[in-house]
Amino acid sequence: MRAMILATHGTRIRLGDLATWLGAAASFAAVGTALWLALRPERLARKNRPELVIEHGEVEPFERAMMVGDQTGEYRLRIGVRNDGATTALRVRVTIERWWSFSGRPKPWLANPIDPVNAEWVGQDVFSGSEAFALDIPSDGRGLCGILTWRHTTQDLVLTVNPRRQEWNPVGGGPFGEQRIELTVSCENAESKRAVLSVTLTAGVPKIDATNTVLQAPMHDVHLSEAPHSDEVENRGLGGLWNEGGK
């Protein structure tokens, strides 16, 4: 039987070949549609998940001077955790993992002996139990979390991180100079974020004006950094040396 030929504008196409091409195109379209439908729930779930962003700064509300009488008694450093996602971030926690202080020694960084601990959310009742350290953050919302407190009257730099107000001070050489603190921000329905916060502490009295605006802060140069390399870290605990290092 003679093959049927379709002639259009001088182009000759065998109808059998055309049917084959159309069948292949339909198969590709069916596979593409199936893949799109299969991946669509995952894409929608990712789109609708919370997106946590770590905020920091050198002005209110990230740095705050606390008055005792007519003098500044404490100076507090906080970070913000903002939710840029479409849904509420559930039970967000900020965990302080490690803390290094710059010492200027042959190994310039000193590892402070702390355990991983949950930091306090500003405004939460820290004596109410573990729930004080888990905060729901709505879409476009933000929570503030305390990281460091500088006590001018006693010249102490401390982490205040649990319901019993257990505190850690940097070891050796005094608290002044650069501090690096490794943080993990986690929640039940979003990916965790890990960051190293750097802040430099200088001696002197914090200066504020009549409206409690900080004019000269003891904590400055706040930025995200990296963990010191292990070759640069001296691991001196309260009882001597141990083997853990930086990154």
Give a quick precis of the structure.
With 247 residues, this protein is mainly β. It has one helix at 15-48, and strands at residues 5-8, 11-14, 52-55, 63-68, 71-83, 89-102, 109-111, 117-118, 135-137, 142-151, 156-160, 167-168, 177-187, 190-201, 207-208, 214-216, 219-225, 233-234, 236-237, 240-241. The protein has two domains: 5-48; 52-241, Immunoglobulin-like (Sandwich), CATH 2.60.40.
Any overview of this molecule?
This protein has 247 residues and is mostly beta strands. It folds into 2 domains: 44 residues; 190 residues, Immunoglobulins (Immunoglobulin-like), CATH 2.60.40.10. It has 1 helix and 20 strands. Strands 6, 7, 8, 9, 13, 14, 17 and 18 form an 8-stranded mixed β-sheet that branches. It is elongated and about 90 Å long. The N and C termini lie far apart (77 Å). The C terminus is likely disordered.
